[in-house]
Specification:
Length: about 190
């Protein structure tokens, strides 16, 4: 039976179990939160991003979740600098030209700050003279730092990034820094 761990990753944690960085670095890893053998992250979530990280012991499922050719959708809650205009949101929806090409169209909507949102440590730095806003962005590809690059390309830099959903899994009911385990029958896989 396939083992699946849904982890609500805190800010500043690497999406791996060991730190292969420079000698003497003391970056926090998944091993400080998850003591489950033979599971690996299905895709990445940057150190400075938070939210849902799916881990599994099934290599085929891991590939299906992380490989862009399967188009597994992922939804992010994104706090951006500024108040995006309708034109800026439409650019995100249509696809944004990045250095590595045009992104696939995204589903984008304005949202209120998520209810029950945990505090981030360290807190986001705000500028008193610049407003901030929350967006919900759903993409079906996973380029390196894609959401951050997309919002920067429309002049609304990301301040805080939380992955809310991967396929059918969400962080609902999972406290930040906590995880839950699911088991899938061999024929099951994410549907979106």
């Amino acid at each position: 039976m396939t083992r699946i761990i849904l982890f609500n990753k805190p800010y500043g944690i690497l999406s791996q179990f060991t730190d292969k960085g420079t000698a003497g670095s003391a970056r926090k890893t998944l091993s400080e939160f998850i003591d489950v053998p033979d599971v690996y992250a299905a895709g990445r979530l940057d150190k400075d991003s938070e939210g849902l990280l799916v881990l599994t012991d099934n290599g085929r499922l891991q590939s299906r979740i992380s490989d862009p050719k399967f188009k597994t959708s992922k939804t992010y809650w994104v706090q951006v600098e500024g108040a995006p205009t309708d034109a800026q949101l439409q650019k995100l929806r249509d696809g944004v030209k990045l250095k590595d090409g045009l992104t696939r169209p995204a589903i984008v909507r304005r949202m209120d700050e998520p209810a029950g949102l945990w505090p981030r440590t360290p807190p986001v730095r705000f500028r008193k003279t610049v407003a901030d806003s929350w967006l919900e962005i759903t993409i079906s590809e996973g380029r390196n730092r894609q959401v951050r690059r997309m919002t920067a390309a429309v002049d609304c830099p990301t301040l805080r990034l939380i992955r809310y959903r991967v396929g059918d899994w969400t962080i609902d009911g999972i406290m930040n820094g906590e995880w839950v385990e699911h088991h899938l029958k061999p024929s099951s896989a994410p549907t979106s």
